Amino acid sequence: MVLGVNLGVTLKTSKKMHSTMALRIKNRHRLKEKEARELIARLKAKAGIDSFDPSKAVDVGMLEDIQVVLVNDNVDFFYHKDELMPTVEGINRCQPQSHRVVVDMGAVGFVTKGADVMTPGIVDADPGIQQDDIVWVCDEKYHKVLAVGLALITGEEMRLKHPGKAVKTLHYVGDRLWVLSHQ
Description:
By secondary structure, the protein is α+β, with helices and mostly antiparallel strands. The chain has 2 domains: 90 residues, Roll (Nuclear Transport Factor 2, Chain: A), CATH 3.10.450; 78 residues, PUA domain (Archaeosine Trna-guanine Transglycosylase, Chain: A, domain 4, Roll), CATH 2.30.130.10. A 6-stranded antiparallel sheet has the order 1-2-3-4-5-6. Strands 8-12-11-10-7-9 form a 6-stranded mixed sheet. The chain is globular, with a radius of gyration of 17 Å. The two termini are 24 Å apart.
């Protein structure tokens, strides 16, 4: 039996006006604190994220066909090929200090349309990034999170600007997951 749960989310539509919409999270269930700690350990190892408290309400469910992890009713993580990944909003909430790739303003339009990150557009990268690490991409001017992806090369190689792809984009501002989680 599939159960639908409505989760009220408030979105800012203007400075004076707010709109409330509902997310439909199916098969939602609460994780035990031990399971939440295991998630944190995986996130710390692959993405440098360890800033959410396992005693908070951590739920797993389906947002349409995407398996998501909600922390205090926020879609902060999702699964991509059985790999736990942070969402753009999850990066904004957790504010990790590592695994960051900074792109120039000319790359922003491409990244926000789902393009992979190419090394010529990178202005800085965490030197601790290893190949296959989860990374987050931000712009150089405002440091706004644009995308989450997998590192195809190390952070040092990104800094040296070897030609080619540096980050495989898996989730970005404006994609289907972004739109579904902001309804």
